[in-house]
Amino acid sequence: MSEVKPFTVATQQCTAIWHMGALMQFRATSADTGNQFWLAEQTSNQGYASPLHVHSKEDETFHVLDGEVSIEIDGVMHNAGPGTTVFAPRGLPHSYKVESVVARWLVLGTPGGFDGWFFDTGKPAERLAVPEFDPADFPDFGEVIASVQRYGGQVLGPPRG
Q: Which pTM value belongs to this model?
């Protein structure tokens, strides 16, 4: 394993992708941190939601910067507004949904590794804005399920928020 070095990433330097209707700006990747964690700032419009899913290898922490996000973890709904942090331990089913017109939040994955899924299934952002809706940006749901499984996750069903 190579030595992990300190780093600084400004907004203009982060790796930004469009992922199924969201803008994701990676402030730290697994490669940056020696696979200790990854950190992304996500911006999404109202109604954006993840399917109900579970991770076997990592925990996720969500910290809402702007807007309102409902996050269901193991059947319990957490309504998160600005300044709210929600922790989703590995092994517990969870999903989230943007309730406000737009929301911006940080997602921290520990340990690293799952950020590769976003890079595999997203595309480079053409600008630092939520992408316009394009059905071509949404892969076949069967492909999504298979790709999540390659990273140790499992899609359990649609969002329930």
A: 0.92
